[in-house]
Design a protein that fits this description.
Layout: E1 4-11, H1 15-33, E2 37-41, H2 46-52, H3 58-65, E3 69-74, H4 89-99, E4 104-110, H5 123-126, E5 130-136, E6 147-149, E7 156-158, H6 165-180, E8 185-190, H7 196-209, E9 216-221, H8 222-231, E10 238-241, H9 243-256, E11 264-268, E12 273-277, H10 294-307, H11 311-326, H12 344-357
Parallel strand pairs: 1-2, 1-3, 3-12, 5-10, 8-9, 8-10
Antiparallel strand pairs: 4-5, 4-11, 6-7, 11-12
This protein binds 3-isopropylmalic acid and magnesium ion.
3-isopropylmalic acid binds next to helix 4.
């Protein structure tokens, strides 16, 4: 009998390649610490459209809900871009987040000293940056009422930013509790000078903060935050923000770390945690064996930490990644002059070798 059942969705593009390396790390840390992980594969995104005509088949949701955690690769690609909106791979991903009640998306952006030179930002600005973006994931403009109305040249496209007080409260609590385990600072990012939904967001954050007197709350408009992230990223500890602002700011934060190929994410709050690298399916390099698997291996660490509450195991995986980077190994996206560039499998194997030495 396995101790844990892990659902696996490889997805499209580089998804299967990076997930394969993530799973090797999962099983290796299991062997090291005496846990057995049984994995069950499900379809979502383009692969599910091809096989079943639906980007999120019902048996996927059912199976995932019946497991301990979900490891997700990436979905989407040019092949499905012209599908009707509700049948696009991305629509399946959004439905899955909603179905799992995964309202809190944690996106850590940590600058490894070894990679400070790989970013387009000056290393002296970056060194020591360690930010946790807490993105609201099942509300806001992604899920508000909208559609395209009218005819011909008079068509109107509408999306609506909607946040209820309970939705803001629950993401606020996640942010403050996360900050308590870190440097005890929360920066709430909104657009309260223009949007009333942001005004409510800010009021509720101020109210929630009273329950966390040990944590300092500040506020920042999203445009300023986009600027501050590259001007002085070390000022941030936890950033809590809406679905769409978090989507944009987390991509920006990924560039501080050198590459989007490094960033993991955990989506929690529902019965089963959902763990995915923040990069997409990268169709341009799919099947070439050169994608960086480190985001997915870091995602496995988050799955262990937040999904299964196995902190020691998570730390072992993260330490192995650090040692691989310290040893000078790189993938193409984080290449540095004079250092060897490894493919997906070789990088995965390098992490495994470090794990086994632990
Ligand atoms: C992300 C992605 C998704 C999002 C897309 C693929 C729907 O950009 O996870 O950040 O916008 O949430
Ligand atoms: Mg995104």
């Amino acid at each position: 009998m396995a101790d844990y059942t892990i659902s696996v969705i490889n997805g499209d593009g580089i998804g299967p390649e990076v997930v394969a390396e993530g799973l090797k790390a999962l099983h290796a840390v299991g062997a090291l610490c005496g846990h057995r992980f049984a994995t069950r594969e499900y379809l979502a995104g383009g692969a599910a459209i091809d096989a079943k005509g639906d980007p999120l088949p019902a048996d996927t949701v059912k199976g995932v809900l019946d497991s301990h955690a979900l490891l997700f690769g990436a979905i989407g690609g040019p092949k499905w871009e012209s599908m009707p909106h509700h049948l696009k791979p991305e629509a399946g991903l959004l439905r899955l987040r909603k179905a799992l009640g995964a309202f809190a998306n944690l996106r850590p952006a940590v600058v490894y000293d070894e990679l400070a030179g790989a970013s387009s930002i000056k290393p002296e600005i970056l060194k020591g940056t360690d930010i946790m973006v807490v993105r609201e994931l099942t509300g806001g403009i992604y899920f508000g009422p909208g559609g395209i109305t009218g005819d011909g040249a008079n068509r109107v496209g509408i999306n609506t930013e909607v946040y209820s007080q309970p939705e803001i409260e629950r993401i606020g609590h996640v942010a403050f509790q996360t900050a308590r385990l870190r440097r005890k600072k929360v920066c709430s990012v909104d657009k309260a000078n223009v949007l009333v939904s942001s005004q409510l967001w800010r009021e509720v954050m101020i109210e929630i903060a009273k329950q966390y007197p040990d944590v300092t709350l500040s506020h920042m408009y999203v445009d300023n935050c986009a600027m501050q992230l590259i001007r002085d990223p070390r000022q941030f500890d936890v950033i809590v923000t809406t679905n769409i602002f978090g989507d944009i700011l987390s991509d920006e934060a990924s560039q501080l770390t050198g590459s989007i190929g490094m960033l993991a994410s955990a989506s929690v709050g529902g019965p089963v945690g959902f763990f995915e690298p923040i990069h997409g399916s990268a169709p341009d390099i799919a099947g070439q064996g050169k994608a960086n698997p480190l985001a997915t291996i870091s995602t496995v660490a988050l799955l262990l930490r937040y999904g299964l509450k196995l902190e020691r195991e998570a730390a072992l995986v993260e330490a192995a990644i650090r040692r691989v980077l310290a040893s000078g190994k790189r993938t193409a996206d984080i290449r540095q002059e004079g250092l060897p560039v490894l493919g997906t499998v070789a990088m995965g194997e390098a992490v495994l070798a470090e794990l086994k030495r632990a």
